[in-house]
């Protein structure tokens, strides 16, 4: 359950009077997500027309100072043909508000559902959507450092320390060994650009095989572009429990991306290493949350070991199996 901050309905209704959205009819906390508090709002205008919105209160990892970057990026991507939600301004032109003591924004609602076990056709469409996103972001001039880059993984591993071994015996040593490998082999020279950095199936809204929306840009940053595809590969191409690898999903995802954006020889050659880095990144953030979130907290902790299994897979994978022919 990701509603960390409870907003009384009177406060929510008063908040909405700042906007041209009509009056609040219903507000429901959204169970999905782990980072922020999200509510689905329904409003009704004087003419009876109803509309839906997302209300997000920023918690935990989102720094308020980064919100203008995310807002400008989504404006830019939307203007360049990507299906991303707009941040909605109040009557005075303000998009960033305070609600219940937290930074908060009203956001356009996009329809669609997230898939759990994607088909190759859905992977193709999702890969294409990421390729289009990377193309569309080429004219975006702002930059944001990725705090969860290789030095950031070292920091996280240090913070987790020997508690990693409470999750699985030997995990601390495995992480140290992997960091040493990545320090020696990370492909820093690859092309960089704006990346989403968390384009998991739950952040892609779909209708059948078509992508209807890309959401949750709160990790977006400037980093190696093909690393974004590697993150997607780990998130889309394994059984939901992190078990079996589905080669047909991997081939379709990469094909969709390649059609929309292209993937250079250097990016292909480095892809297994990028996948190892992506797997370690999610292993570490999940492990950190596992260690630091009480077992009875309202949020469902995500399993770090599902990413250890992916890491082990990528460490011995044949590149052709990851990329398709
Ligand atoms: N713009 C949107 N349109 C429709 N649904 C959304 C939108 N933004 C968020 N959601 C819903 O809220 C859930 C949590 O949002 P998300 O941004 O992923 O939260 P978190 O940052 O906490 O992980 C999503 O899985 C989706 O169901
Ligand atoms: N995708 C990450 C967690 C971040 O959650 P999201 O709901 O913001 O995508 C993971 O699976 O570890």
TrEMBL record:
User: Which GO molecular function, any one, fits this protein according to its record?
Assistant: homoserine kinase activity
Q: Name the EC number(s).
A: 2.7.1.39
Residues in Aminoglycoside phosphotransferase domain copies:
27-259
Q: Which reaction does it catalyse?
A: L-homoserine + ATP = O-phospho-L-homoserine + ADP + H(+)
Spell out the SUPFAM superfamilies in the cross-references.
Protein kinase-like (PK-like)
Q: Does Secreted count among this protein's keywords?
A: no
Matching Gene3D superfamilies:
3.90.1200.10, Phosphorylase Kinase, domain 1
At the top level, the lineage of the source is: Bacteria
Enzyme type, top EC level = transferase
List the keywords (alphabetical).
Answer: Amino-acid biosynthesis, ATP-binding, Kinase, Nucleotide-binding, Threonine biosynthesis, Transferase
List the GO biological process terms.
threonine biosynthetic process
InterPro entries, alphabetically?
Aminoglycoside_PTrfase, Homoserine_kinase_II, Kinase-like_dom_sf, Pseudomonas-type_ThrB
Query: For this UniProt entry, which segments traverse the membrane?
Result: none
Pathway the protein acts in: Amino-acid biosynthesis; L-threonine biosynthesis; L-threonine from L-aspartate: step 4/5
Q: Which family does it belong to?
A: Belongs to the pseudomonas-type ThrB family.
* The protein, known as: Homoserine kinase
Q: What are the leading ranks of the lineage? A: Bacteria, Pseudomonadati, Pseudomonadota, Alphaproteobacteria, Sphingomonadales
């Amino acid at each position: 359950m990701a509603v960390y901050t409870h907003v009384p309905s009177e406060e929510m209704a008063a908040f909405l009077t700042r906007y041209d959205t009509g009056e609040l009819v219903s507000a429901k906390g959204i169970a999905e997500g782990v980072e922020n508090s999200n509510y689905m709002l329904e409003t009704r205008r004087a003419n009876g027309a109803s509309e839906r919105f997302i209300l997000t209160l920023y918690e935990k990892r989102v720094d308020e100072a980064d919100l203008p970057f995310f807002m400008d990026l989504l404006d830019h991507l939307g203007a360049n043909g990507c299906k991303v939600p707009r941040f909605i301004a109040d009557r005075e032109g303000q998009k960033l508000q305070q609600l219940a003591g937290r930074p908060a924004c009203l956001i356009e609602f996009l329809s669609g559902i997230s898939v759990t076990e994607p088909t190759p056709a859905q992977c193709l469409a999702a890969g294409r959507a990421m390729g289009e996103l990377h193309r569309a972001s080429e004219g975006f001039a702002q930059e944001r450092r990725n705090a969860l880059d290789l030095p950031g993984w070292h920091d996280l591993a240090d913070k987790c320390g020997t508690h990693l071994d409470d999750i699985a015996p030997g995990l601390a040593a495995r992480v140290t060994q992997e960091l040493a490998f990545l320090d020696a082999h990370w492909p820093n020279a690859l092309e960089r650009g704006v990346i989403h950095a968390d384009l998991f199936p739950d952040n892609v809204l779909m209708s059948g095989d078509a992508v209807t929306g890309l959401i949750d840009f709160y990790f977006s940053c400037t980093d190696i572009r093909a690393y974004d595809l590697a993150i997607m590969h780990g998130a889309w191409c394994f059984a939901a429990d992190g078990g079996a690898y589905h080669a047909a999903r991997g081939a379709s995802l990469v094909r969709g991306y390649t059609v929309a954006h292209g993937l250079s020889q250097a990016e292909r050659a480095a892809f297994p290493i990028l996948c190892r880095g992506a797997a370690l990144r999610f292993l570490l953030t999940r492990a950190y949350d596992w260690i630091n979130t009480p077992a009875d907290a309202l949020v469902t902790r995500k399993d770090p070991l599902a990413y250890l299994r992916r890491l082990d897979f990528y460490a011995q994978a044949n590149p052709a199996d990851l990329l398709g022919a």
